[in-house]
Amino acid sequence: MFRTMAAIIMAAVAAAGVAHAQGEHPAKPKPWNIPDRAQIRKILIQRIDQQRQARGIVVGLVDATGKRLVSYGVRDAGDNQPLDGRTIFEIGSMSKVFTSLILADMARRHEVRLDEPVAKLLPPGTKVPERGGRQITLIDLATHTSGLPRLPTNMTPKDPANPYADYTAEQLYQFLARYQLPRDIDSKYEYSNLGGGLLGLALSRRAGTGYEALVKQRITGPLGMRSTSITLSADQKARLEQGHDASLRPVANWDFQDATAGAGALRSDADDLLTFLDAELGFASTPLAPAMEAQLKPRRPTDIPNTEVALGWHITTTARGPIVWHNGGTGGYRTIMAFDPDARVGVVVLSDTSTPAGVDDIAFHILAGTPLVEPPKPPKPPSEHHEIEMDPSQMQKMVGRYQLAPEVVAEVTLEGSQLYVQLTGQPRAPVFPERPRRVFWKVVDAQADFEVDAEGRATAMVLHQAGRDLRAPRVEGEAPASR
User: What pLDDT, on a 0 to 100 scale, did the predictor assign at position 382?
Assistant: First the structure.
């Protein structure tokens, strides 16, 4: 999804957006030809061998002449098997395009309405927040304008490295019942994995089946996309690429329940995604064509420069015209698929490493000639940290709420003898004391020092990550003392 546990702290404070934000366009762009295989391969060599942003990347292109693939890198350290069009990756938030296509198809079949309140698709008695007499509708969820946050605040994963694995529909309903919308519905774009998951759950309930089965029935089955799924067969597991963090260390795959599957659970390969874009561009005949066309018609503004959001897709206006796109990111992968509807060219870029820069710029460079981004250098391997024993009464003095940024609060809680920190819009993560007023994260290379008063009560928290120090003063409103 856009932000991962590997960037849980500083990324949550950074401004929202994507790597390819366009800025001002030249009045008369120079002619642009899609890069050939050699040029794309050169980009991948630089990205992998010189900039160390991945172990392997697959690029797929489709246009009127057909499909073609360019890949570089190997499966993993010690495994020299090359990547190809059948290598499977987690595609993260690209799943939202499939979820919203199902919405468009169900609306076309009169099974749902775009303006239908999502509450009508949920179990009787489920309370969904409202505001100003307005209910959250299906189109609000698909366009990230529902007013719901990025993630629910009651998402406290047992394993922070697999943050969605144990979040259930019951927990989602509990969150909705007590959440108060901070703004009017349809008044502002706020990217929401919670909203994407809720949309997938609601549509599955209306269809009377699970999310994965619904995707197969409505999309991957009709299109012949045999490698796109959530549950992998033995053959698919053998083709699943190992994911890595930004330091190129192997990481575990992510798992999802139906409560969040619609936001990012799908896995796929370049061959399948090119088949999907082949249909989007009209080169392949499909009964989904009317729904694909309808999916791009509703448009709402976003906070991304020159970009609107349709049903699932984002649409960015470049100097050479519109680019329709969606990217994805999980703990070990960064991906994007995009197409130019006017030139009828599509591109897929799949990387086996989750980095802050991602691969969005590669896709936009191929389609529109926008500049390639110079990614930051990979982080140094994390320094060693050793946990010490600390009396819970001392840890209790750290409990509280700390203001990191105007819209970001770090909430420190104590559960038994375990401290946790949860940032606004992020899952809760455990932290561990390494000296009397310092804690460290195990899921990310980050530490925090606490400033205290004469009684030893924390008055501020200073986060240390990626060479940055960020001071967060304590704010009014205590976090729960224990659970």
Answer: 66
The dihedral sign for the CA sequence 214, 57, 159, 15: negative
| Block residue for tokens 């209790």 | 396
Specify if 360 maps to a domain: yes
What does the pLDDT read at residue 22?
40
Please report the pLDDT score of residue 381 as a whole number: 67
Where does residue 456 fall: left (phi above 0), alpha (psi -120 to 50 degrees), or beta otherwise? left
Query: Nearest CA to 45 among 79, 74, 75?
Result: 74
Q: Are 371 and 439 in contact (CB under 8 A)?
A: no
End-to-end CA distance of the chain: 29
**In a shared domain, residues 309 and 357:** yes
Cβ neighbours, 10 Å, residue 108:
15
Q: How many CA atoms does the CB half-sphere of 151 hold within 13 Å?
A: 24
Question: What CA–CA distance (Å, rounded) separates 5 from 215?
Answer: 27
Neighbour count for residue 281 (Cβ, 10 Å): 19
- CB count, 10 Å around CB of 361? 22
Evaluate whether 47 touches 221 at the Cβ level (below 8 Å).
Answer: no
Rounded to whole angstroms, how far apart are CA atoms 283 and 271?
15
- For residue range 295-304, list pLDDT tens digits in order: 999 999 999 9
Residues 261 and 403 reside in one and the same domain: no
Per-residue tokens: 210: 């699970």
Which of the residues in the chain have pLDDT under 70? 1-30, 77-78, 379-382, 466, 477-483
| pLDDT computed for residue 78 by the predictor | 67
**Closest to 152 in 3D by CA, of 192, 94, 184:** 192
Residue 324 is predicted with a pLDDT of 98
pLDDT at 80: 75
In CATH, what number is assigned to the domain containing residue 467? Answer: 2.40.128.50
pLDDT of residue 354: 95
Buried b (16+ CB within 10 A) or exposed e, 409-444: bbbbbbeeeebbbbbbbbbbbbbbbeeebbbbbebb
Angle between helix axes 37-45 and 360-368 (nearest 10 degrees) is 150
- Tell me the sheet residues that pair with 432: 440
Q: Which domain holds residue 432?
A: 392-475
Number of domains in the chain: 2
